[in-house]
Write a structure and sequence with these properties.
Blueprint lengths: L17 H7 L30 E3 L5 H14 L2 E5 L3 H6 L3 H6 L6 E8 L11 E4 L5 E6 L6 E5 L2 E4 L7 E5 L1 H6 L9 E3 L7 E8 L28 H11 L5 H13 L4 H15 L2
The structure holds 2-oxoglutaric acid.
The site of 2-oxoglutaric acid has 12 residues, from β3, β5, β9 and β10.
C-alpha cells in the first residue's frame, strides 16, 4: 500500500512516519503518494455525499429489536454506528482488576491513526481501500472531521460521525464464519488540506491458529455451499502480507479457489466453527 500517511510495507503493520512526510511535503505531495485516477477520492463518488451508514441505538428497551437492527446493518452495510452504548459509564464503574483485564488482551489490537493535513487531498488517501482481515473492528473517530468512506452499492459513502458513537464494522473472519451473510465491506480514508484527523481502532481478532470456515448451520448445498475453505487467521494474514491491500481481493480469491477446488470437507468446517465463534466473541 502506498499513501501519504501509511506507506510502505503493507497493512496491518504500522509503518507510519507521516508527520515527517507531511512537514516536508510543501505544496505538493511526493510522486509516490499520488494515487492512480481510479483510486483517488473522487472516484466512484456517489450517494450525493450522504452519510448514511445505519445508526443503531443500543439503549432500546427491546433487546430483540436491537439485535435485528445490528443484524440488518451487518447484512446490508457491514458497518454501523452504535450510539447510547453506555460503554464508558459501564466500563469505568468496574473494579480496577476488571478494568485491567481489558488492557493488552491478546485477542485485541489497538491502533491510533493520525492523518496530518495534506496539500493535495484529491490525489491521495490516508488509508487505501481495504476490508479488515480480523473479526470485528470498533472505531472511535474525530466527530468534527470526516474522512472515513464506506463502499456501498459501488459508491463511496462518507461517514458523518455521531458524537461518542462507536463505528463498528465486520471483518473478513466474520464474513467467512457467516458464509457471507454478514459483509466485511471495503472502506478507505480521505485526508484534508484544512484539518488533521485522529482515529482509534480496536481490532477484535480470532485465535491465530484455529482454522475458520463457514458455520455448518449456514451451509446448505447445493443452494448455499461453503464459500470459503478453512484457513487460520495466521495463514490469512500471510496471504494478505504477500498481496498487500487490495480492497476485497483477498476473500474473493479464496472464494474463487473454493469454487474451483470444491467445498471444504464438512468435518473440518464443523470442528472449527463453535470454538472459533466463541473466540471471535471476545
Ligand atoms: O481512520 C479511520 O476512520 C479508519 C481507519 C481504518 O480503516 C483502519 O484502521 O483500518
Amino acid at each position: 500500500m502506498s499513501s501519504c500517511f501509511n506507506g510502505g510495507a503493507g497493512w496491518p503493520e504500522p509503518v507510519v512516519r507521516v508527520q515527517a512526510v507531511s512537514d516536508s511535503c510543501g505544496a505538493t505531495i511526493p510522486e509516490r503518494y499520488v494515487k492512480a485516477p481510479s483510486e483517488r477520492p473522487s472516484s466512484l463518488g456517489g450517494g450525493g455525499g450522504l452519510n448514511n451508514i445505519p445508526v443503531v441505538d443500543m439503549s432500546m428497551p427491546d433487546g430483540e429489536e436491537t439485535a435485528r437492527a445490528v443484524a440488518a446493518a451487518c447484512r446490508e452495510w457491514g458497518f454501523f454506528q452504535a450510539v447510547n452504548h453506555g460503554v464508558w459509564r459501564g466500563f469505568f464503574q468496574q473494579p480496577m482488576e476488571v478494568k485491567q483485564r481489558y488492557g493488552n488482551s491478546p485477542a485485541t489490537y489497538e491502533g491510533v491513526n493520525f492523518y496530518p493535513r495534506c496539500p493535495q487531498p484529491e490525489l491521495t488517501l490516508g488509508v487505501a481501500s481495504h476490508s479488515d482481515p480480523g473479526g470485528m473492528t470498533m472505531l472511535l473517530v474525530d466527530d468534527h472531521v470526516r474522512g472515513l468512506q464506506v463502499k456501498n452499492a459501488g459508491h463511496w459513502i462518507t461517514v458523518d460521525p455521531v458524537l461518542d458513537a462507536f463505528i463498528v464494522n465486520i471483518g473478513d473472519q466474520i464474513q467467512v464464519l457467516s458464509n457471507a451473510v454478514y459483509k466485511s465491506v471495503e472502506h478507505r480514508v480521505t485526508v484534508s488540506a484544512a484539518e488533521e484527523r485522529l482515529s482509534l481502532a480496536f481490532f477484535y481478532n480470532p485465535r491465530s491458529d484455529l482454522p475458520l470456515a463457514p458455520m455448518p448451520e449456514l451451509v446448505a448445498p447445493p443452494a448455499r455451499p461453503a464459500l470459503y475453505p478453512p484457513m487460520t487467521f495466521d495463514e490469512y494474514r500471510e496471504h494478505i502480507r504477500r498481496r498487500g491491500l487490495s480492497g476485497k481481493a483477498q476473500l474473493q480469491s479464496q472464494q474463487m479457489a473454493t469454487a474451483i477446488c470444491g467445498a471444504p470437507p464438512a468435518a473440518t468446517a464443523s470442528s472449527s466453527s463453535s470454538s472459533s465463534a466463541s473466540s471471535l466473541a471476545r
